[in-house]
Structure formats: C-alpha cells, structure tokens
Amino acid sequence: MTETAVETVDVHPITFPPPVFARISPELSLQRHLSLGIRPSLRSFEEFREVNINEGTLSRFGPNGVAVEETGNNVLGSNVLKCGNTFVVTSITGGIVEINIPVDEEDIGEKELMEISEKRDYVNKCASVFPQIEVERGRTGAPTDEEMTISQKLYDNVLHSGLISKSALDVDCGIRITDSTGKTKIVYFDETKDGDMSQFRPKRKWAYVLYAKIVVFSRTGPVFDMCWNSLVYALKDTKLPRVFIDERATDLKMTVRTRGRSAVVRESYDILFDSKKAVPLKINEFQIGFASNYGIIDLDPEAQVVRNDEGHDVDEEMDKPRAILLADIDSEAEETSINSTISVIGDSSGKLTNVTIVGGGSKITLEMIKRALALSKARYDDLKTKS
Amino acid sequence: MNVQDRRRLLGPGNAKPITFEPIVKEKDKQEATEHDIKETLFLRSGLIENCNGSSLVEFKSQHRQTSLIASVYGPRAVRGSFTSKAAISVQIKNGSSGDYDKSRLKELASFLTTVFSSVINRSRYPKSGIDIFIHLTYDRDLQDEKNAGIAAIIPHCITGITLALIDAGIEVLDITSGGHHNGSVFAFIKEGEEVTGFWKDPSRCDDNMEESLKVCKERYLNYKSIMTGYLFQNQKSESVQEA
Amino acid sequence: MLSVTEKLYLYDSLAGSPTVRPDGRLPHQFRPIEIYTDFLPSSNGSSRIIASDGSECIVSVKVKVVDHTVSDDLLQVEVDIAGQRDDSPQVETITAFLNKVLEPTVGIDTSNLTLTKKYSFKIFIDVLVLSSYSHPVSLISFAIYSALKSTYLPKLVSSFDDLEVEEYPTFHDHDLVKLNINPPLVFVTAIIGDNIFMDASASECDVSSNGLIVTWLDGKVIAPIRTTILSDNDVKGFNPQIIPKAIKMIEQYAGDILQALENL
Description:
The structure holds three protein chains of three kinds. Chain B has helices at about 100-115, 155-165, 210-240, and strands at about 15, 40-45, 55-60, 65-75, 85-95, 130-140, 175-180, 185-190, 195-200. Chain B is of the alpha+beta class. Chain C is of the alpha+beta class. Chain C has two domains: about 1-30 and about 185-265, 2-Layer Sandwich (Ribosomal Protein S5, domain 2), CATH 3.30.230; about 30-180, Ribosomal Protein S5, domain 2. In chain C, the strands form three sheets. A five-stranded mixed β-sheet of chain C has the order 1-2-3-5-4. The chains are: A alpha+beta, B alpha+beta, C alpha+beta. Chain B: InterPro entries: ExoRNase_PH_dom1, PNPase/RNase_PH_dom_sf, Ribosomal_Su5_D2-typ_SF, RNase_PH.
C-alpha cells in the first residue's frame, strides 16, 4: 500500500519542444534562452537580421529615368525589403497639385516679411510623403492602431529629417508644340537652350505629391524599422515623370459654365504626364538615416538554466539582476516580454533624425543608450551598402 | 457621403493622380500564335510566417506578367450559430498598378469563393471560417489587350489559392487550376472531367466555346503538373532536411 | 428548410431522367411573373416585378444630360437588396455583373442616347430587391428590361450640331419620346446532376450543385457568363458538356420569354 502511495506523488518533468514552449510561456522561454547567451532566434544579443533589398522591380522608370515599361504602370519608385521572414513591399505613386501663387500686386513689404519668417521656418521648406501602411494579418476593415501609428511616424520623420526639400517637388512644366507640318514634340525648358522658348513658360505652378503604399507581409515582430528603411530605399529609387501641357493651353481661356450661377471664366490647363521621360527625385543624401531598434531586458535570476561547470557564478548573479541590450527585436516572445525600447534613426556620422526611448520595466542606463547609438552607426554602414 | 477619412494620411484633396496611358505599339496582333509563346510559372509556398498557409505565384509570358501572393488564414472559429460547413471568404487586394475597379475585384473574389466552395472539403471543418487573401503585387499587360483584363489573372489566383490551401494543410478534393483563353476562364478538377468554375468576359475575337474549353484544359493540365512537380520537390527537400 | 431525406429525394428526381420538378414544370419552364410598368411618377421609367414565389423587385430609370466627350459611360446600375449591406459580396457582385452586361462593348446599342455631338443622355438604373428566394439576377434583368422599354425621354428641340455653338440642349415642355434600347437579358440556370433547370425555385436551388448565369441578346448567348453557387449546400464541380447544353436551352427558349416581356 505504502509503495503505491509513493508512486503517485512521483513528479515527472514535462518537456515541450521549443516552439510549443515559446507559445505557452514566452517570457520563460526567452529568459532560458538568454541565460544561455543566445536568443530564441539563435541570434546573439547584438546581432541584427540580414536585410535583402530589391529596388525598383515594380517601378515604371528605369535607373536612367527612361520608361522601361510601356504599360499603364504608375509606380514611380519601389522597394522590396526582406528582413528575416518578414518582407515589406513599398511602392511610391504620385499626384500633382496646383500651388496658388500670390498675385504680383501684393504689398512688397509684407512679402519680404513673409520670406524672412519662412526662411527661419526650416520645416516649411521640407516636404513629406503620405504613407499608407498595411500589415497583413488576415483581416479586413479599418486600419489598426499599429498601421495608423507607423504611418504618422513615417510622415513626421520624413518631414522633419529634411530628406525631401519642398523645391525638389516643384514641377518644371514643359509644353507640347505642334509645328506647321503637324508633328508634335515636347519641349522642356531646362533641356533646350533656345532662350526664345521661355516666353511660352506657363504662368502657373504645380508641385508633385508623393504617396507611399507599404505592405508588410509575414509580420513577426515590430515593423517600423523595416517600413522606414524600405521607404528610404524606395524614395532613392523614385523618378518623377516629366509634366507638360499643350501649347494651346498656355494662354487659352476656357469657359466653364456652372448652372444656376452667372458664367465663370476660368483658365483651365489640362496637365499631362510624359509616359516615357522622368527625372530622379532629388533627395538630400546627407540627411539619409536608417532605422534600428533595441530592447532592454533584465535577466530573471530564477529562470536561469544552471550550468554545472559554472556553478560558482550563479550566486554572484543572484544578487543583482543583470540587464542586457538586444538589437533588432523580433519574434512574439521578445516583442511581448521587452517593454524598454530604444529606437534610432541616424547615420554613421552620428547625425540623428529620431531617437525614441521608452522605459518600461527595465532601467535604461546611459551606457545602454551609448551602445545602441554605436550599434546604429554600424547598422547604417551595413544598410548603406545594400543600395 | 462626404466623410473625411481620419484614420489615414491622405494628402491634399485637390491632387490629381499621376497616371499614364499605355503606349500603344503598332504591331499586328497575333492571336493565333498564343499557344506557341513560352510561358513560365514560378511557384513558392510557405513564405509568410503569420498565416496558416501562403504561396507566391509569378507568371511570365510574352503577353502578361503577373505576380501575386495568396495567404490562407484558417480554419478558425467563427462566432454565431453552428454551421455544418466551413465558410469561405476571399479578399483581393490590389497592390499593383493595374487599374481594376474595386467592384470588379469583388466580383472576382466572389467568383473565386464559388470555385473553392466546390474544391475545399468544407464538411471537414464545421463551425469554422477559412479566409483567403490575395495580394496582386503586379500585373502588367504587355499587349494592349484591355478586354482580356481581369479574366487573365483568374487562373493564377486559383493556382495561388490552391497552393496556399495545401500549405495550410486544408483538405481539398483535388488540385484545381484553370486556363484562360480569349476572355474565357475554365477551372477544372479531376483531370478536366469536372468544371468548378466558368467565367466569360466579352472578347474582341469571335470565340468558339469548344476551342476555349480545349485550350483551357490543356493549360490546366500544364499548370497542374507544374504544381504537383513543385509540391513533390518541396516534400522531398523537407524530408531531406528532417533526415 | 428541407430534411436530408427530402433533399435526397428531390435531388434524385431532378438529377434522373426523365426529370420531375416538384411543381411539374418542364426544365426550361418559368413560373408565372407579374410585371407592372410606369408606376413611379417621378422617374422616367419604372417597373415592378413579382415572381410567383413572392420574390419582388422594383426598378426605376432616371436620365441626366451629360457631356459624352468627358465620359462615354452612359448606363449605370445600382442594386440594393433589402436586408443586405451595400458592400456585401452579393450586392457588389450583382452590381458589377449588371454593369458589365450593360456595357456597350457587350452588345447593347447606346447610339439612341446621343442627343447632340457633345451631349448624351445618361441612364441611371436603380434596382431595389424587396424579397428574393433564389438568385435574383434574372428577375432584376427582366425588371430592367421592362423598365427601359417603358422609359420616355424629353424631346430635344435645340439643334443637333452644337460643336461650333456653345449651347446646352433644350427640351420640349411636354412632348416625350419613347426610348428605343435593347438591353440584354440575364438567365440563371441551376445545375443538378447532369441536368439543367431554368428559373429554379428555392428548394431546387437548395439541392443544386452549381449554377450558371448567362447573358442573352438578339437570339444569341453572349458574354458575360459566370458560374455561381445558388445555395451553400453540396457545391460540386460539373461536367464541362453541361455549359453548351445550357446555352442551347437558353438560345432555344429565350425568344419566347422576350416576346412575353414585349407583350406587356
């Protein structure tokens, strides 16, 4: 009788295969891995995932600004970025808006004042793109919080980084001329040396607007970095199509009648896009920064895997929790367990576009931030070579 | 309805989108030689981590280049009353430059739903939903065949979904695929003995249904052999990895 | 709702040869329908169609003068099905399909809509399906046909050639002209076993393995053609030879239906 009673209290350890264990207890799984000096993804603490990029595969225009496709493809710049299992597809499309130029007879003093104040306003000279993020996760409907946050963050960062100057989006409009023989040709004022042509220059101004559609497939961890890097590569690839109007439209006035009201006379330009020629988007190369992210986690002394040969170390570590810095957070376990994060956009010279530090749980020390900044410089150098 | 979308950054409202007219090449249309043109079909499955099954289909021919990603989520539990069979839904998202009308894509999505209703063994999955997503990465019509339009991508959608379903381990009655000919699409199972879907759009040439059926069947058998070849190869490499 | 046994019985009697439909109809025979036209005073044309099973559909036709040099899209259909959202798959699919059917490239002749060299009538067709017990697209197409056939448009009094003169077309105060347009008809056939049935009732749809939507104009079956599922049960593939068989049946009998609609 006693023997059977002893047998019933016998405890058998349950073992799970690593993927199942990670699912059941992500925190513990992560801690066990970290105590072995390795991450669940088998990367070391400060190791980034390899990034592969594929530029311009979806774009209409080739590297020299000549259309490689004769279809209705309207993608001006594109990039496919693969990082680990995740891949991001960015395609840049464009639009055009008319800019209202103040009428010439304006008060000159006021205009000067405006110019002075505008000069100081650095942000006012920069332009941005309008990103639309889709993180594929098998759902439909309104965008998620993550998608909305990322698109706003991308918008703000492009604007404030000064990556694109407003002047880079100004349209230099050409005209289509039909000569006496009935042949048509398109004249661009910066291409022709004929000074006489400038009189035909249209009096109105337009500007390009850029839209970025970013689709994230196979999301395994935070995706902001990948979206940013992919967007930067795509912008580098972007070509703006040449724009022209028909010569008849340069000084033609068309009547636009609205019913019920008195007739309104308005100049109407039908602006057209050159389907063969494009110029590269001028981006301020020296302002380019790449994004990277870091997480800080305290090693839980109780979750350590005790190694026999280093048994004497254990007591030492038990006294104070050791915090470690992980680069390039990935996987569900890391994303859910790590609350203290550092996110950096910057280049190798140490010029920073954006640094976000979120302290949650683990304490972020100055050394950690220094280390993260140093790593982001190395990451920049690596990513720079990709394009 | 004039509701502003506050969830997305849409940019200035008065912007005119940049669009291009396809450059019409002056060359004689060679409809008859369509068979002779070499087509390549590139398949890959299991490339997306956060879904149950996924596939990538890239198709290249002299007429058309298409690339799409299909992902399958499910079978997952559905809320509400008991259903004896899985509910299937198909969503098509257009990431490409192809300017397909949204409602036409919805029509295509519901057509694909009908095709897969007869292919997936739905009674195996009661009270569950199988959600299928297609992302059209690009679709380039290299000839100005406007009226072929959307019909030409249907066979590739079917191929993609079938591979994704197999990758997800969802039971299908047979490997289905289809062929496109002059605006007509037939989707087959059982070596062409049964039709699971038929879609016909107006085309500019005089069409003969028997002819289309024959051509589509040939293409189906071709696509199917490519798919089975890919699946066998995949299985082999997997078993090698395991061993 | 039918029980499993009832379904099997029904399936066997429909899939067998000779076929026995529950109401004794022939495979190509329609149930009686009632159509009223021109009952909406504020529309240019209207119709109301009631099938004998209680399915009901109202169509209103309105016209507007548009500049056809801007857009040559002169017919537009909008479908509303009671109890379904506007973005539900069925509503979207039927809308897209009917717009395709009424596209000029399909076969409808829109030249009668041209007013002047610059302006045309644009026809807006609003469909409201009040109740439906089987696939409603065939019923809708009959209703659209009879509504368009009962449409009267204002008579143009200004000149036809307005390219030189900037002029908006003007119309007669009272006189109306009958619209002469010939829209295609749409038929839904149910596939059960190797047999096909026109105008399948709800219980017949329930046991069907697949369905076929076919467009017909001027004695000929034309595109678009689609397969569709008529009920969620037992959807199966079918023999490819059924498609030509269905087309033959429609080409044989559609003329009679057209005549019935014309005789209103």
